[in-house]
Amino acid sequence: xxxxxxxxxxxxxxxxxxxxxxxxxxxxxxxxxxxxxxxxxxxxxxxxxxxxxxxxxxxxxxxxxxxxxxxxxxxxxxxxxxxxxxxxxxxxxxxxxxxxxxxxxxxxxxxxxxxxxxxxxxxxxxxxxxxxxxxxxxxxxxxxxxxxxxxxxxxxxxxxxxxxxxxxxxxxxxxxxxxxxxxxxxxxxxxxxxxxxxxxxxxxxxxxxxxxxxxxxxxxxxxxxxxxxxxxxxxxxxxxxxxxxxxxx
Length: 249
Description:
It is built from twelve helices and no strands. With 249 residues, it is mainly alpha-helical.
């Protein structure tokens, strides 16, 4: 609207520069309103993160440390103007989180039991998916831990070494037969290499351990669609509806 008004004013005055100025001003106003809006959302996200950490019994010291590291990186490599930032100033975010940390009874406490191992596995999986070529360097053969085995299995899959990936995943399942994430990984490898019938029982076993998990229901529905019978298609529709209801709620 601002651009149109500027153009109309410029045309009435016979001045093209006035039309251009009106358009630029309108665009700057829109951009600044959007920046202010996203900053508000990001501040709310920080506060939500602090609440979730507290509810999980996890100290927010790590969040504070992360923001301080981010601030150091920004000071070393400054980019852009603070007036065009979509996030609040990092210094302001640090101040808010520092206040929450100072008031929290969890400050300086240890992570809940098992969280370090869960994080190591999550990191290994993400590393295997995003940087498969570097897995051998970060997780050398001498590292026989479950996270290292996990990373190597995912990396083999991402590098299209499917027999090796399946063998490594089988070893993980043998070590932890009730781990739904290892079962899901084997199902994913089979599904994405066209072996849908073989993939199905692994998704079913994983769902038995994580009932109602949408990320398992979706590929399970895919395996049922492939069979093509009326009963299988109806079952796939039911699974898909569960996912739709989950995300709607």
